[in-house]
Amino acid sequence: MTLSFFDQFMSPTYLGIPLMALALTLPWVLYPTPSARWLNNRFLALQGWFINRFTQQLLLPLSLGGHKWAALLTSLMIFLITINMLGLLPYTFTPTTQLSLNLGLAVPLWLATVLIGMRNQPTHALGHLLPEGTPGPLIPVLIIIETISLFIRPLALGVRLTANLTAGHLLIQLIATAAFVLLPLMPVVAILTSTVLVLLTLLEVAVAMIQAYVFVLLLSLYLQENV
Amino acid sequence: MESLTIHILLEEFMRFDVLSWRAASFFFTASSLHRASWQKTQQMRESYNNMQILSQHLLFRRISRVSASLVALCRRARRGRDKGALCSKNSTLHPSNMLSRLVIVSASGLKSSGPLGAGLVQASRSLHTSSQSLAPVPPLPEKGGKVRHGIFPEEIFQLLYPKTGVTGPYMLGTGLLLYMLSKEIYVINHETFAAASIGAVIIYGVKKFGPSVAAFADKLNEEKVAKAQEVKDLAMASLAQAIEDEKKEQWRAEGRSMLFDAKRNNVAMLLETNYRERLHMVTNEVKRRLDYQVALQNLHIRMEQEHMVNWVEKSVIGSITPQQEKESIAKCITDLKVLAKATQARATA
Transmembrane region positions (chain A) (predicted)? Predict the structure, then answer.
């Protein structure tokens, strides 16, 4: 069956049953539950080590109130990284290419940080709207600019993830199509294109991991400002 | 028998709705585990060690048999749906008999097989709610199952070896691939290229970083073990040291009597010295007092003597009258004159 380039981003259904829930929850199966044994197999050991190190690194700059977010942020990171990496396999659907999902993750979490800041330390939270050392006449303009930047944050978070992943997937499709079409016509050019494709795949692997990390990191930064 | 079963299995696999087949197999495995697990725990524990290799082989046989019978059931159901319900007189394919047999066969097959069975027992522990589930479960194997070319389990090769030899599975794979390509079940399109590139990246990553990651994971476990071992070693060393110290103390305790003797000697000497000192002091004191008495007596005698001499002198001098004194002086002068004359005569003669 021929695919148009945007079919990969359609929400998957099967016989009319939407499979989005499966696509979001099945990656959970890939991670084994930590067992009650003292010495585990290699996979569990690595998983435990990674989660511990990541949480420790993420929570270093946060004060004690932010430590409540540890489980949420680490699980969000693992979720995003798994979904992004699994999406690089052929014929798979990547939920994070859907803007609805990313905004659905970004807006509530960002809003939570803002509300926490406003509730617990309103003066300090509002103080972030004005950087230190601004000259007098610039203050009104800067406050407006900072407020706009504050409200753009969730949009930026969601759209950044969506755009990066969507663009990457589209590029892979396009360059793969180019290589496929060129193969009977000009094999050498097709080989060059395939080389570009391999490099792009490498880049996409990196982007998948980095974008997930950036999402979580920015959320932790927003939390750090407000907690 | 096996090759026919496998052929049927694969045919149906190709034609069947993949999702519903998978759902059905998952469902009957799960239900059979729950029902049969508590019956089978005892049996499994006894026979586990003996049946390991054989039971892996048996497992695949059973699975293939089970799936073949399931496939036949579904085929019959479909035929029944097409033609109207027709119950065959053949009891082996009768649906009500077969499902229960399926359950028991699959459950025991899965439970008594080697690592797969142990893994299933461990994974389904949350479903075991009766008290029989408190019995110890078979341990998980240390290493994962052996695979060839990274994805194909070694058991498939062992399964096919008796009938098709060494090249059997490869022929099967090639045949499958060519079948899927020629019948356009799998179409080569741009996604193939994308799959090839991501496959190349994954294989490169695994080959390059696999051993180091595995070594790192092993190191994590080694460190854990080393820490516990260190604690144990320290405890043992300190206990051994304590034993040594105790032995030394016991040896020291034997020399106690010598120590006491020496101390006793010391004390005796001190006492002796003290006694002699005091004796010496007493002697000195007594001598001093006696000397004093002697000196006193001497003094008395001397004083008496002097007194007597003085008295005698005084009385003698007092008894000399002036007449006597003049006579004695005149006599002295005459004596002196005589002497002078005598001397003068001696000098001139």
Answer: 12-31, 69-89, 101-118, 138-158, 170-192, 198-223
